[in-house]
């Protein structure tokens, strides 16, 4: 399941659909609709108080809309729910606060198993992409192999790490002090400190974090919380916030089939913004959290901005323009261009997560579409089994050549034939677009 809020999204949309279809809405209709919305929120693991306050705020605004006798009151109601959902998730996007004089010190805190070490590397990789010269400090001397795990992951992202291997001292404060000094010496602009996690909230752990906070006055204290733990995540956030004063939250494991209530309650309970969300295993699967866009996705309005942003990050713009002009030229695309286009799509991440960003795409549709990532690999294998001449001139592909390509790619001949047929249809359609555009000029 690619989208954490899928069940919530489907049921909320269904509850709203009953209201949007009507030309006239009475207060009773709204009350009934809101009762269903509250039930959906509670079942998605949203805290009772949060769900109650949310529906009460929507009700008050809805009464105002009904009194105005507006056109399509149902659509107005959807907008109210969207705005309140945005407010519940934190109102506006909150980025990291950077120090006016580097380095910016970011303390990552959380329970063991919340994905803290992986998140430290993902955050480091993100900061590196943003030219913020990151430096990681392994500040967990208790868990065997904690530092080794951080070093191995950091090596993949080519990030520098400082830890006990460089400075053997049992005191964590001294270790972090040495790490920050090394970062300053190396001209790092950001320092991400991966602190020790514990199995549960304990006084000793909190004391250590308080000492670290007092010693270094970090610019950010970010809680890494597992989005799969539901209301427990909210209780943990409250505990950390009371003890060390959080500046933000990173929710991890949001690509699972979590009910999503933790994310909806987190800001309401702690007033601490969710700054990033972890959306998968890859080291680039850490995305800035945007409340308005997430609300849009939950209500199946899509997140086209998110799709465009992801494309900008991963797609080779010059190649994309070349493909676009080839596709609409008189000659049209050949199979080499087609292969290049496929690679661009694959670079953008798992297909399920892309499909989820499109408006009106709900979990049911995604299940029906059965986006199978292996299918793209099969298509690639077929095209790669052709000679460069065959890719440029698909009309050369007679029966014996198709049989050879099938053998080379390990796919049945029928699949080769189907691919070529689909490719030809697509090419005609694209050329048609080009002709249409040229005709208009």
Describe this structure in words.
- The protein is built from 20 helices and eight strands.
- With 441 residues, the protein is α/β, with parallel strands linked by helices.
- The mean pLDDT is 81.
- A hairpin with a 7-residue loop joins strand 7 and strand 8.
- The chain has helices at residues 6-20, 27-43, 48-67, 73-88, 116-129, 146-156, 172-185, 203-216, 231-244, 261-270, 291-298, 304-314, 317-327, 335-347, 351-355, 363-369, 373-384, 388-392, 399-409, 413-440, and strands at residues 104-109, 134-139, 161-162, 190-195, 220-226, 248-252, 274-278, 286-288.
- Helix 2 packs antiparallel against helix 3.
- The chain has an eight-stranded mixed β-sheet with strand order 3-2-4-1-5-6-7-8, sandwiched between helices.
List keywords for this structure.
single chain, 441 residues, alpha/beta, Four Helix Bundle (Hemerythrin (Met), subunit A), Rossmann fold, 434 Repressor (Amino-terminal Domain), 3 domains, 8-stranded mixed beta sheet, 58% helix, flat
């Amino acid at each position: 399941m690619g989208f954490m809020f899928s069940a919530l999204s489907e049921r909320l949309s269904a509850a709203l659909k009953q209201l949007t279809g009507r030309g006239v809405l009475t207060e009773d209709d709204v009350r009934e609709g809101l009762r269903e919305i509250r039930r959906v929120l509670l079942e998605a693991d949203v805290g009772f108080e949060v769900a109650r306050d949310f529906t009460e705020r929507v009700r008050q605004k809805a009464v105002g809309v009904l009194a105005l006798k507006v056109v399509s009151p149902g659509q107005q109601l959807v907008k109210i729910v969207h705005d309140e959902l945005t407010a519940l998730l934190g109102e506006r996007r909150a980025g990291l606060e950077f120090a006016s004089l580097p380095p910016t010190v970011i303390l990552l805190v959380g329970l063991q198993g919340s994905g803290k070490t992986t998140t430290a590397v993902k955050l480091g990789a993100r900061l590196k992409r943003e030219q913020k010269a990151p430096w990681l400090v392994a500040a967990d001397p208790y868990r065997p192999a904690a530092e080794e795990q951080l070093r191995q992951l950091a090596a993949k992202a080519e990030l520098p790490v400082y830890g006990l291997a460089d400075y053997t001292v049992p005191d964590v404060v001294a270790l972090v002090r040495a790490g920050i000094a090394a970062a300053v010496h190396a001209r790092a602009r950001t320092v991400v400190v991966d602190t020790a996690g514990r199995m549960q909230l304990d006084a000793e752990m909190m004391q250590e974090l308080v000492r670290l906070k007092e010693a270094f006055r970090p610019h950010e204290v970010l809680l890494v919380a597992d989005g799969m733990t539901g209301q427990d995540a909210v209780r943990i956030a409250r505990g950390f916030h009371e003890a060390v004063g959080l500046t933000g939250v990173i929710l991890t494991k949001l690509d699972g089939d979590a009910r999503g209530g933790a994310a909806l309650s987190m800001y309401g309970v702690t007033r601490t913004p969710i700054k990033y969300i972890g959306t998968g295993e890859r080291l680039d699967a850490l995305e800035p959290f945007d409340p308005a866009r997430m609300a849009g996705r939950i209500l199946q309005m899509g997140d086209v901005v998110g799709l465009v942003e992801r494309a900008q990050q991963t797609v080779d713009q010059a190649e994309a323009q070349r493909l676009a002009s080839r596709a609409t030229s008189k000659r049209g695309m050949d199979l080499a261009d087609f292969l290049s286009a496929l690679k661009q799509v694959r670079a953008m991440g798992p297909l399920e997560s892309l499909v989820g960003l499109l408006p009106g795409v709900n979990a049911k549709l995604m299940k029906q579409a059965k986006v199978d990532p292996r299918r793209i690999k099969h298509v690639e294998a077929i095209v790669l089994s052709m000679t460069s001449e065959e890719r440029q001139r698909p009309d050369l592909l007679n029966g014996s050549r198709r049989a050879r390509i099938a053998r080379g790619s390990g796919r049945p001949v029928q699949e080769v034939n189907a691919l070529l047929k689909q490719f030809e249809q697509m090419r005609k359609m694209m050329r048609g677009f080009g002709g249409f555009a040229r005709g208009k000029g």
